Amino acid sequence: MNTARLVLEDGTIFVGQSFGARSSAAGEVVFNTAMTGYTESLSDPSYAGQILTMTWPLVGNYGVPPHILENGFLRFFESEKIWAKALIVSEYSESYSHWNAVESLAQWLTREGIPAISGVDTRALTKRLREKGTMLGRIILEGEPEPDLYDPGKQNLIALCSCSDVSEFSSQDDKNLLPQAKNYLVKNRKPRIILVDCGAKNNILRSLVNRNAVVVRVPWNYDYSDLDFDGVMLSNGPGDPNWATETVEVLRKVFEKNKPIFGICMGNQILAQAAGATTFRLRYGHRGHNQPVILPGTTQTWITSQNHGYAVDPLRLHEDWTTSYINLNDGTCEGIRHKTKPFFSVQFHPEACGGPRDAGVLFDQFLTMICGG
Length: 373
What we know:
By secondary structure, this protein is an alpha/beta fold. The chain is 18% helix and 32% strand. It has helices spanning 38-42, 105-112, 122-132, 157-161, 202-209, 245-255, 266-274, 361-371; strands at residues 3-8, 13-20, 25-32, 50-54, 58-59, 69-70, 73-74, 86-88, 91-92, 115-118, 135-141, 167-169, 192-197, 214-219, 231-234, 261-264, 278-294, 301-313, 321-327, 333-338, 343-346. Strands 12-14-13-15-16-21-20-19-17-18 form a 10-stranded mixed sheet, sandwiched between helices. A 7-stranded mixed beta barrel has the order 1-2-10-8-4-3-11. It has a two-stranded parallel sheet with strand order 5-9. Strand 3 (25-32), helix 1 and strand 4 form a beta-alpha-beta unit. Helix 6 (245-255) packs across helix 7. The longest helix is centred in the middle third of the chain and has 11 residues, at 122-132. The radius of gyration is 20 Å and the shape is globular. The N and C termini lie far apart (58 Å).
């Protein structure tokens, strides 16, 4: 391992050892409080442009799984590549033990060209980010050129992470279908769902396909309003939702069809913007598997998986809409729902991967809306 430095834009420096690719990197430094899930997080397009800090002290001990295609997309990863610019951990374990592991985390990072740094006091780094807010930073390796600061907010990361053409996915093997999938039929055929890809995680595809749906994935700015479909899924994605103006314009056209719409994370912000609301940037975002949300007016709570840096301003919602979930840590909006039409969204990740699966039932609610159950 070679010496590496993390230099924040305020001048704070953390020194550690490099592992992974021998290169430098720059991006927005964020932290994730999850205990597991580095494979899923690194391959999550929502981390595009960001340097990911894992607050859990030991990372790498269960290795990396094989790249296996299932139903047209990778089985154990959330996309086809690592999207994070770099990784920061307290302690890295080169030795790994897991029944499904085929390589070490460092081997995967090296092959993908992603640098990483260990030996960092991630507790002190996280406290710094909580006090100052999310900051830009650079990982500089000894003997490598120093990169310029990179601000992902100045780039349309949604366009970067979206698919480039229309593609269709469905289950190729009924053994993977969930038991309730037999209930999800539209006129004795599989329901057709448009997935608007703003940087979609593979587990959104899995969650729909395993419920017997045919998923038509379209680019973020594609006009799908005249296609044949039964419902619309608005995916997660990276960066500032204000880049998604074309997505919002198409969605407003689709409102007129009164077909079920379900948004996740970035999809929640896009649905809110289409409904006339605005979004704002959080001080340091919500990233991890332990974010509690509550259904207003009840005692129903979920511990959720989250990964976002922006939130919806519920005060700007039209009177036809209501807030459906609230974050118990900071009171921010965690979901919206139309009062009379089948449109709803959540800021958290019901597809998890990684994280708790408490909210997976929302996919069943969406399919029930579509199939008229």
